[in-house]
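step=encode ok
step=design start
structure_in=
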């Protein structure tokens, strides 16, 4: 499985941006897909999760502003980000979790940089 994240860029505070995570394999086989972000010098943190059944969860810092969704037919997972703040500036990564021979395996995409200007 290969994941390709895209959609990052420079955006003004208060505006919106949507990230996409394209999978080379069927996302229906993933037990969960997550979006993480990382700022230099800090640990990577999970910001949003969507399970195979469509349940979602968000970090408190993005709750009410970010929405994770998926399109099983197109093997895409999205992160819609609105009311962006400068503190949302980070490299964003998508990660899929899939069972392989009884073991949960993580698949990471490359990062996409989001820069929010004040």
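sequence_out=
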């Amino acid at each position: 499985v290969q994941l390709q994240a895209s959609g990052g860029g420079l955006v003004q505070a208060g505006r919106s941006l949507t990230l996409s995570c394209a999978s080379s394999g069927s996302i229906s086989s993933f037990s969960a897909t997550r979006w993480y972000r990382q700022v230099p010098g800090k640990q990577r943190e999970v910001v949003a999760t969507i399970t195979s059944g469509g349940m979602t969860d968000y970090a408190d810092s993005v709750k009410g502003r970010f929405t994770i969704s998926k399109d099983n037919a197109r093997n895409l997972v999205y992160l819609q980000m609105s009311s962006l703040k400068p503190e949302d500036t980070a490299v964003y990564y998508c990660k899929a979790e899939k069972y392989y021979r009884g073991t949960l395996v993580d698949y990471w995409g490359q990062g996409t940089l989001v820069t929010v200007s004040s």
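step=design ok
step=annotate ok -> The CA atoms of residues 99 and 105 lie 6 Å apart.
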